[in-house]
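Session log. Operator J.P. requested a structure for one protein chain; no other inputs attached. Running the standard single-chain path with C-alpha cell output.
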Amino acid sequence: MENIYRQINSLAEKYSSYTAENLSKLVKIKSLSLGEKEVQQELKRQMEEAGFDEVRIDGLGNVIGRVGNGKKILAIDGHMDTVDVGLPENWDFEPLGGEIKDGYVHGRGTVDQKGGVAAFVTSGKILKELNFDRDVTVYFVGSVIEEDCDGLCWKYIIEEEGIKPDFAISTEPTNLNIYRGHRGRMEMHVHFYGVSSHGSAPERGKNAIYMASRVALEVEKLNERLKFDEFLGKGSITISEIISGSPSLCAVSDYARFHLDRRLTWGETKESAVKEIEELIKGMNAKVEVLEYMETSYTGLKYGMEKYYPTWKIDEKDYIVQTGVKAFQGVFGRQPKIDKWTFSTNGVTINGYHKVPIIGFGPGNEVLAHAPNEKIPISDLVAASAFYAAFAYEI
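Structure written below.
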C-alpha cells in the first residue's frame, strides 16, 4: 500500500490546479436549494471529463458518479446547494466570483460544501488513472436540497433509487479531521388557542399570547436541564419565531404559535422531545406539531420527509473509523484528530435512519460555513482528494 499512497499523493498534488479550477466553476453558479439544475449539469460534465465509469442524474436531481464495480459499496457524499450570500457589504470579495488567489479558492460554497465535491471529482480521476481494481463500487454523490432539509436526498437515494451503501463518507468541512457524529435536530410548532374579546375588556377573553409567553419562559428553563453526552455535548432548545393572530388590533389575541429549534444529543428522540413540550402545555388549549418538509425539486419531483433528523455517532473503535485512521496515516504519515460536527449533515439519514456506517472528512473550516468571506485552502482540497482515493483502497 505504501506505493499506492505515494502515487495517490503525487497525483493529488499534480491535479491541485485542476481541482481548484473545477471548484471555481462550481462556485460561480448560484445554487440555492431547489435551484441546483445548472450546477448539477456542470458537476456531471466534470465527472464525465474525469473519466468516471458512469454518471447520471437521478429523479430528485442528485448527480451520481460511479467508479468500480465491486461487491462492497462506498458512497462519498457532498451537497451542491448553498445558503445565500447575505449582505454583500459584509464580503471583501465577490461572493460568487470563484477567485483563485493566494493559495485559496474564494466564494460562497467553497467550504459548505462544494470544496469536498471538487476534491472527490479529482479522487475519481486518480482512481481511474491508477486502474482501481478493488472489489468496491464507489459512488460519488453531488446531492441536493441539504440546506433546506438535510438527509432528504439520501432518503430518496436509498428508498427510491435502491442504492444502500455499505459505508459512506460525508465531505462536509471537518478541517481535515475525521468526524464520527453530531447531534440530531427537529423542528416543532406549538399552537395556542385563546378566546378573543374586545380590547377594552380583556378579562372577557383568554389571551393566546399570554399563554405562549408563559410557556416560552418554561422553554428557556427546559434548555438548562436537557441531557448531556460526553462526546456530542448537551441537547438544546430555542424559540426562533413567534407569531400571533386576533380579529383586530383592538381585540384579545385568540391564536399564537412559536417555532422550536431542538438539537438532540445522544439518548434524546422525537418522542422524548415532544413529551417534554406536552408537559409544559398540560392543561392549556394548545398542541405540539412536528413539522413536515414537502417541496418540488428542480427536476419537477415533489418529495418530502418529517423534519426529524436523528442523532448519530459511530464508536471510535468501529471498522469505518479505524479504516479512516489507516487511510489518513497512509497518506499524511501522522495520526488524525477524531471529533464531531456542531451542525447537522446528511448523516441524519445515512446513519440516523438507515444505520449505514459513516464518517466525515472534508476540506475547509466549518466556522466559515454560512459566513461572509468564505474561502478554502487549495492545500485542503489536495489533501481531501488524496484521502478519499486512499480510503477507497483501504475499505
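Operator note: The first strand starts at residue 54 and ends at 57.
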